[in-house]
Each structure stands twice: as C-alpha cells, then as structure tokens.
Amino acid sequence: MTDACPRSRRNSRLLRRLCSLLCVLLGCSFFPVGLAQELDKPLQNIDEEITAFSFAPDGRIAYSVRRLFKTKQYDLQRDDIWIQEAGGKRRRLLQGEKFLRGTAPFSYAVDSFHWSPNGRFLLAQLFTTTVTEDAGRPEDSFATLVLEDNGKEIRVAGGDSLIKDSANASFLPDNSTIIYLAEAVKPRVLYSLKYVNISGGSVKSSFEGRTFLDANRIPYSGAAIAVEQSHAQTGPPRLQHLDLQTQEDTELDTLDGYVGGLAVSPSGSRPCRDGSCRPPPHRDWSFSVGPGRESHPPQTRPRKKIRRHRVD
Q1: What whole-number distance in Å separates Cα of residue 8 and Cα of residue 70?
Q2: Mean pLDDT, rounded, for 112-122
C-alpha cells in the first residue's frame, strides 16, 4: 500500500484527535456566540503537545507527550506516556528518554492507544526509527508496547514488552489476547493476522495462510472487518467479516479495488460503503470503506525524529 500524502494525512489525524479531546474536555457542547467566553473554562485541560490519546472504559485518559532530546550524534524523539484520572490527577507511565532497546540509536512517536476492555492494560502503537550499523541509515517500522495501567511493562512471547513489526493491535474480549497486523508482503503491501496471549505462549497465526490489505476491529466484540487480497495479488479484493475467536468468516462483498480507508462505527444498524447503505446481512453494525480513515495500517511516513549531528 502507498500513501499519496502521508504528511497531510498525519496532520489531519492529529487535528481530529485534538478536536475530539477538546470536545470531550469541554463537555461536547456547542455554545451560542454570546457564551463563547465559556470556551476559556474547560472542564479539564492538558496543556501539552499531545501526539495521541485514548479514553479508558472508566473515563481515564491515556495520552502521549512529544519529547525531543539530544545525544552526542543525534536529535531523538521518544514520547512520554501519561494517564489522567477522572478527577484530573496525572501520573507518568513511561519516561521516553529512559526507554531503550539495544545500543543502536532508537527513536519513536506514539501513533495510537488501545485499552483492554477491563481498562487494566494499555497498548501503545509506536512509529519507530532505528539506525543500525549494518544498514547505515534510519529504518522505519511499527511496534506495539504492552503496559499495565500502573506503568509496568508486560512481557509477552520472546520476553519483551515491545511487539515488533506489529500494527493496529487490540485486545479481544478476554482481556488477555492481543491480535495485530503483521507485514506479510513488503514494504507494507499485505498483512497477516497474528495473536499472542499476555499470560504466556508463542505468537500464533489467525486465519493462517490468508493475507489482507487492511483490517479493523468491530468495537466491543471478538470480530473484525477486513479487506482480503490473495498473496499473489491476483483477483479483486474481498470484504470479509472475521470472527477472531472461532476463526469463521463471512464474505460481505467483492470490491472493484481498494485504495485505503476502512472504518467501523462504534454502533449502527446498517453497513455503509462509499456513502451508500443497505440492510445488514446478519449483524447490527456498520462499516465504511473509503479515503480518510482515522486509523489505518502503517504507511511510509517522512522521518522527523532522528537527525545526526556532525561530530568534530
């Protein structure tokens, strides 16, 4: 998959996030012109350069704050991760500058958060950049950091709290199983579905042998909507309903093509695609396929986080 304008899409997504946060903190109300001054009195305020945020089921807010710092050779970015309680108290879960992986220069920006249904665990999707001696140049990737809501890192298969090369990770309703997209055809063309349990065990495949252009969870369920494409990239893409717990699937539609933009509404009674709606085949949910999706599979993005200094 390619992104014709990655910078524009990222800026647009950040603007939507900030607007959504402001809306909630202000009580999601539209004020008459005469009461515009009330906008200066938000219910809560987080005066930071926020890169991502997400609300827990109990109303807490997980958010990341952009942090830049310098080493002898590089300018780096490693965002801090915070939680704001419903009463306004804040505590830092992760200090980015101290979060290291190996000896190579490592930089990241938090791209999104996903809570477990019980609000105990938090997944942070990171857009990472690493400079390795072998490559001699920055290498971009996605990874998922697994945390408890007290800041403790949860080590999964392989003994690390960072699930490398993973995107769009989320918890199933059991609060223990993490399912995510893993790159199957490089660079970021097709993906497979993988899952791992935080209580132990190795990484396993979901819908083994099948590849997808995109996938998005149906909220509050163990199912997802996905756009399937053969590994050989022949034939039209197919819109699928995937039961991630039983491994059963239902084909919903055959698409003429797919250029990105898959979303699932929190609730609804009619599935919608490209602005047209029709009665649902068997479930009470809705989805849309088209450009401008809020959360999308990893795309190539401009590097802005690692800059090398000249050392005399």
Answers
A1: 27
A2: 97
In degrees to the nearest 10, what's the CA dihedral of 256, 261, 264, 269? Answer: -50
> What ranges make up the beta strands (E) of 30-120?
50-55, 61-65, 68-70, 74-77, 80-84, 90-94, 106-115
Using the structure block, give the residue that is written with the tokens 């909630």: 24
The vertex-24 CA angle with 7 and 142, nearest 5°, equals 35
Sign, CA dihedral 84-89-93-94, equals: positive
Same domain, 34 and 52: no
| Each residue's pLDDT tens digit, 292-310 | 333 334 444 444 444 555 5
Average pLDDT, the chain: 79
Q: Is the CB of residue 265 less than 8 Å from the CB of residue 226?
A: no
User: In this structure, is residue 306 part of a structural domain?
Assistant: no
Residues 174 and 236 in one domain: no
Shared domain for 187 and 234, answered yes or no, is: no
Structural domain harbouring 26: 1-45
Nearest-angstrom CA–CA distance, 206 and 184: 13
